[in-house]
Design a protein that fits this description.
- The structure is a single chain.
- Helix 4 runs parallel beside helix 6, helix 4 runs antiparallel to helix 7 and helix 5 packs across helix 7.
- With 340 residues, this protein is α/β, with parallel strands linked by helices.
- It has a 5-stranded mixed beta sheet, sandwiched between helices.
- It folds into 2 domains: 140 residues, ATPase, nucleotide binding domain (Nucleotidyltransferase, domain 5, 2-Layer Sandwich), CATH 3.30.420.40; 167 residues, Nucleotidyltransferase, domain 5.
- It has 9 helices and 10 strands.
- It binds 5'-O-[(R)-(carboxyoxy)(hydroxy)phosphoryl]adenosine.
- 5'-O-[(R)-(carboxyoxy)(hydroxy)phosphoryl]adenosine binds next to helix 4 and helix 5.
Amino acid sequence: MDNITILGIESSCDDTSAAVIRNGELLSNVIANQDVHIAYGGVVPELASRALQLNIVPTIHQAIKNASVSLSEIHAIAYTRGPGLMGSLLVGTSFAKGLALSLGVPLIDVNHLKAHVLVHFIHDNTPNFKPPTFPFLCLLVSGGNSQIVLVKSYSEMEIIGQTIDDAAGEAFDKCAKILGGPYPGGPFVDVMAQQGDAYAFNLNKPRIGGYQYSFSGLKTSFLYLVRDEMKKNPAFIEQRKTDLCASFQRTVVEILMEKLLKASQDYHISTIALAGGVSANSALRKAVENYAHIYNWTTFIPKLAFTTDNAAMVAITGMYKFKAGEYSDISLTPFAKTLV
Ligand code: KG4
């Protein structure tokens, strides 16, 4: 089939996104963010699904318009089935089903985490675009996940390590909260850290085997440090905010990189990719580049626009499933937690 054109719909959390991809080339990628959660210091599921209901039609309309395609040119509707917030997933799933039925085209369910990994296959007019070759390792770090994924093909991915408690993004969010910063906290910590001394404070690193991660101990160690110092000096946070952020960020990056290096060495794989919201972190991106020089890695670091949730990654995943004839039944229901 010529000109395979896929509409992707992403609705796993608070963002509503729609994108059109033709033969792997990105024609449009529209994201409607939700500011409603800022006041609550985190995503409120009920508010997220309500806002999604309002945003989904205009977002898809805009994506179709920006791509300069008509609905009759769409070959399949790819949508996020999970993991994510059930209310948000239901909005996207219901809309995708209705649209696929009305257009008479296949429906394709997409795993949100696999979609994050396949972001590296989106062709978006980058000069000398070259996707990773299989197998490669992907460090997938977001607000809900911290995983090392062994990517064997477009469809075959094995999680070889993941967090046993908090995700890296959650740790960044918690650090910002302790310091009185905004939500989400990652970008705040990142900016503050750039003006601080990364070695000002020593924080606990987890002692955990294999390729597993853990961030809850670090979070607690940071909380206790701030609490104890504030008792002695109530201006401690204000005076040391940048050093605190830099030290916290350095520790998270060290934890992430140590296991990634171990996996790369044990599996003899030197093609390394980053994905997920935390892959926007400047120190993590720099660390991966440094390791690439030292260990001769070939690295794939996503553009900032592709680090957060977006439908372009859903559309590209949908395209590979479409090519493989992997269509979904209309009776399929969303899943909130990772299956298998
Ligand atoms: O992938 P994502 O957009 O959402 C899901 O978790 O699905 O990731 C959001 C997470 C948040 O925890 C946010 O604080 C973190 O990514 N994040 C960052 C940065 N930008 C976003 N963490 C560290 N540094 C950043 N620059």
